Amino acid sequence: MSMLGRTAQNLFWLSRYVERAENMARLLEVGYRMSLTSRREGGSSEHLISMMKAAEVDEDFAKKDKPADVDTVANFMMFDPTNPSSVYSCLQAARTNARSVRTAITSDMWESINSAWLEFSQIKPRDVRGAKLLGLLEWVKHTSHQFRGALLGTILRDDGYAFLQAGNFIERADNTARILDMKYYVLLPRAKMVGGDLDIQQWTLILRAASAHRSYRHVYHDRYKAHNIADFLILRPEMPRSLISCARFVEQQVDTLADFYGKKQDCNNSAGKLRAMVESTTMDSIFANGLHEFLTEFMARNNRVSDSLSESYNFY
Amino acid sequence: MADKPPFDEMYNPDGSVREPYRALAQWLEEQPDKALTLMQSDAEAIFRKLGITFAVYGSEEGTEKVIPFDVIPRIIAAQEWRRLSKGIEQRVKALNAFLYDIYHRQEILKAGRVPEKLILQNSAFAPEMMGLEPAKGVYAHIIGVDIVRVGPDEFYVLEDNLRTPSGVSYMLEDREAMMMLAPDLFQRSKVAPVENYPENLRRTLESVAPAGAGSSPNIVVLTPGIYNSAYFEHSFLADQMGATLCEGPDLFVDGGKVYMRTTMGPERVDVIYRRIDDDYIDPLTFRSDSMLGVPGLFNAYRAGNVTLVNAPGTGIADDKAVYTYVPEIIEFYLGEKALLQNVPTYNCTDDDQRNWVLENIADLVVKEVHGSGGYGMMVGPTSTKAMHAEFKKKIEARPDNYIVQPTLALSTCPTYVNAGIAPRHVDLRPYVLVGDEVRITPGGLTRVALKKGSLVVNSSQGGGTKDTWVLED
Q1: Is pLDDT of B58 > 70?
Q2: Residue B140 CA to its chain's centroid (Å)
Q3: Which residue among A6, A96, A313 places its CB closest to the CB of B250?
Q4: Backbone angles phi, psi at B165, to 5 degrees
């Protein structure tokens, strides 16, 4: 007996939203730290706006007609229900999805997302200003880890698992690409600074946003260098948030689905193309043709995997 | 009736403990200070964490609430339960026979034992069901009979819920919670298990699958969705039975057959345990504005291609006005006297009875014939003069829309409240499954009125629940 198309859809989006909440917290952390450490470069708001551009929420923020300072941006990224990518919106959507598919997830998964939502909805935005903000960002990451832990530890390895994992890693690929792309928005106006202290510092923060600043050393035994950092987050299969490992993993999941249902579909094709795109390139060619252009193309193809998966398995 | 102190389930009038409550009484005595307070807050935390909630319509803040759970169980002795379950079985058999008759030859109307007008002009009567043969002749498969106790041997049936009785998930979760909170108390008692309810539900549903469904029929639970007050229960039951939880848009009808939209395309559905009211299940047959149902579902049902549980039109048998005839109904179909009593009910369309009711309204309970969940009712002794006047007017305007009963002195059970342990009024809803056989789960849901003196136990009106123990011999 196969599952409802709606159930598959809810599972897929459930884990996408949890991953997205985590990554919104990561992005905000980078934007926030950049705004603290590089004040001389034109004040804090610029970095925060770059961060929102990378998250594609800058236009919604502009509509609010508020100055972009740490408080307003943090509030918008964390608590604003009108921002569909805010942590608030993501956790709420994740919980609603989880409630709709309670019969398709384990009680450990349900309890993890349910208590996260209950806890988060108790928090008052004004209580997490300043130093408390980083603590809350940590909490969001832990919440996501906990949910994923419950998922990995308890759910049956059937089609539901593959939909959950595909959603998780499609979202993660998108987010890693966005975190990297932030560098483009931050640096673009000042290309002459490439290679300078500030440049490296910003790359470091990017690594940090991907929780990769320690593991970087284990792979490169080298100083932080733009080339290596981009390589790490795009082409290194050992790095669990890199584009290549996400793309490979997504392809595995859709192949698992094809095996489970006994039939290859469009999404197998688009997932294969996405993986091939990162496997067939090098850092030199990415930089030569433009990092931003590469990332934009990657995100578009990644989206295509998501769309074709929805079509192949009758999401509605 | 209201002057006599209510029957206490735990203590005899002389203060001694009634036999079934001996172990509990001793256990309560042994509990250190604060132990119950702690248990109570643990219970609250468990229920909230598990998300065992119900939605409160119209309440702004936190639309999901946890039903208050009381940590002191209600206990029913083995012989008391035997009596009750015999009476319940008799009732559900007669009511199913009644439904079959009403939708076929209508012998009981021809014999004049139940007034024709009461049935044929009743909004709960579904003419679409005439002549239809449900699998195994069963209309009401899942029933929750509301029972109150007023004395050691006096049980009354308040209501037969034959449409979509809810609360069975609380019965099961209350037991879970109680086993977690007080395992030592279980060790001292022999409590009949309730845990096989989901398994029995599945067997019941399989047993009424259409003839062509094969040996493992595809069973789904049809819910109005996550915003329905009983959504938790719908997902819980689907989960426990291994059935698919569907909403209207997940199903469609093609060529008189019902399918669900799966990841691999359409898949045939055989049995639908629907938790959507009759009016909403099929916009083509019933309410055309319904977004909850499945267009064409009723025709698929009529064609015998799918089983609907409970059958449409069962509401005619739990109509509050029909209720007064249940003892007649039992005699007519089974040739037996009713084992469980009805609450005496006044008929307001009769001039003498109505006049008496209007004069004595302050002592009476008035219920709207089609009201449910504590809405549209008035409990005389605890209502204001203005309310009495309002309901008098309502009865005068539409005497057929109300039934009136004396205020029963519902039994009380010791209950944990702010002030400590105090008696509170309770009722009981045992759950019955009817398919190839009748299966009654020992126990049921005990609802408790948490407010001192209150007789209203509905969760929508602030009532709570208790684990219900049927002792084994």
Answers
A1: no
A2: 12
A3: A6
A4: -60, 135
User: Cβ of A95 under 8 Å from any chain B Cβ?
Assistant: no
User: What would the two tokens of residue A73 be?
Assistant: 């941006």
Interface test with A, best of B49, B229, B263 (most A CBs within 10 A): B263
* A314 Cβ under 8 Å from any chain B Cβ: yes
**Any chain B CB within 8 A of the CB of A96?**
yes
pLDDT tens, residue by residue, B335-388:
999 999 999 998 888 889 899 999 999 999 998 887 665 667 888 888 899 999
For residues B360, B361, B366, B368, the Cα torsion angle rounded to the nearest 10 degrees is 110
Nearest to A79 by CA among A101, A64, A65: A64
Q: Answer whether B440's CB lies under 8 Å from B91's CB.
A: no
End-to-end CA distance of chain A: 19
| Cα B270 off chain centre by | 25
Q: Give the torsion sign (CA, B122, B124, B128, B129).
A: negative
Min Cα distance B248 → chain A (Å) is: 11
Whether residue A86 contacts residue A76, with contact meaning beta carbons closer than 8 Å, is answered with yes
What is the value of ipTM here, to two decimals? 0.84
| CA distance between the termini of chain B | 34
Residues 6 or more apart whose Cβ sits within 8 Å of residue A40: none
Residues in chain B within 8 Å Cβ distance of A114: 49, 51
pLDDT value at B60 more than 90? no
Which residues of chain B have a CB within 8 Å of the CB of A107?
50
B247 touches chain A (CB under 8 A): yes
Q: Is A156 on the interface with B (CB under 8 A)?
A: no
A191: pLDDT confidence band, cut at 50, 70 and 90?
low
Which residues make beta-bridge pairs with B74? B468
CB nearest to B263's CB, from A96, A118, A261: A261
Structure tokens at B151: 């004395």
Side by side, the strands of the sheet bearing B251-254 are: B251-254, B257-262, B265-268
Q: What is the pTM of this model?
A: 0.88
Q: Are B148 and B411 in contact, with CB atoms under 8 Å apart? A: yes
Amino acid at residue number B82: R
Task: Report whether pLDDT(B1) > 70.
Answer: no
Tell me the Ramachandran region of residue B411: left when phi exceeds 0, alpha when psi lies from -120 to 50, beta otherwise: beta
Residue B264 clears pLDDT 50, i.e. is over it: yes
Q: Is A66 on the interface with B (CB under 8 A)?
A: no
